[in-house]
Specification:
Structural class: alpha/beta
CATH superfamily of the largest domain: Ribosomal protein L4/L1
Oligomer: single chain
Shape: elongated
Number of helices: 7
């Protein structure tokens, strides 16, 4: 099992914690990680892009000039793609970009990213993250004490104040054990998790 240091909100090391190899010590499968990222980005696309082909652009029904004798190249319509105001060749149409991955593949990708974060010493564990009231300044102190700039903070239950405190911090986002995803884990340089959220992650994904 991997051992990681546990810090308090002042950034001081207060102990050690063992992480489950079933979640934080798996074989890293880069192909599944890549597929999971592509899946999330594709599923987030609206797919509403639309342009008109020459058949859909209004006008252009009359031949602009006779076929021969004018000195111009022959033209059949002023809405052909080479004309200003003409249609678009192979114009995009609304489509659904989404696709699916098997549940076990998604979990393997997530575990691979968590394992890589632990191996790179970019997975920090806090003993707790509690605030009496939402205070952005207090969350900023915690982030600065841990000496990180870009972080995904995984919180446990009853952490509304922590979520609200991090909301206005640039480069900081929050998530719960049930809502973490491969893209966000890769997007942020460091992952910060409370002891309770680590236990929740191991319970959900082990």
């Amino acid at each position: 099992m991997a051992n990681v240091s546990v810090y308090n909100m002042e950034g001081a090391e207060v102990g050690k914690m063992e992480l489950s190899d079933a979640v934080f010590g798996v074989e890293i499968k880069e192909n599944l990680v890549h597929q999971a990222v592509v899946l999330q980005l594709a599923n987030n696309r609206q797919g509403t892009q639309k342009a008109k082909t020459r058949a859909e652009v209004r006008g252009g029904g009359r031949k602009p000039w006779r076929q021969k004798g004018t000195g111009h190249a022959r033209q059949g319509s002023t809405r052909a793609p080479q004309w200003t105001g003409g249609g678009v060749v192979f114009a995009p149409t609304p489509r659904d970009y989404s696709f699916k991955m098997n549940r076990k593949e998604k979990q393997a990708a997530l575990k691979s990213v968590l394992t890589s974060k632990v191996q790179e010493n970019k997975f920090l564990v806090l003993d707790e993250l509690k605030f009496d009231a939402p205070k952005t300044k207090e969350m900023k102190k915690v982030i600065d004490a841990l000496k990180v700039e870009n972080a995904l903070v995984i919180v446990g239950k009853d952490s509304d104040n922590a979520v609200l405190s991090a909301r206005n911090l640039a480069g900081v986002a929050t998530a719960s054990a049930e809502t973490i995803n491969v893209y966000d884990l890769l997007k942020y340089n460091t992952v910060i998790a409370t002891k309770s959220s680590v236990a929740a992650i191991e319970e959900v994904y082990a």
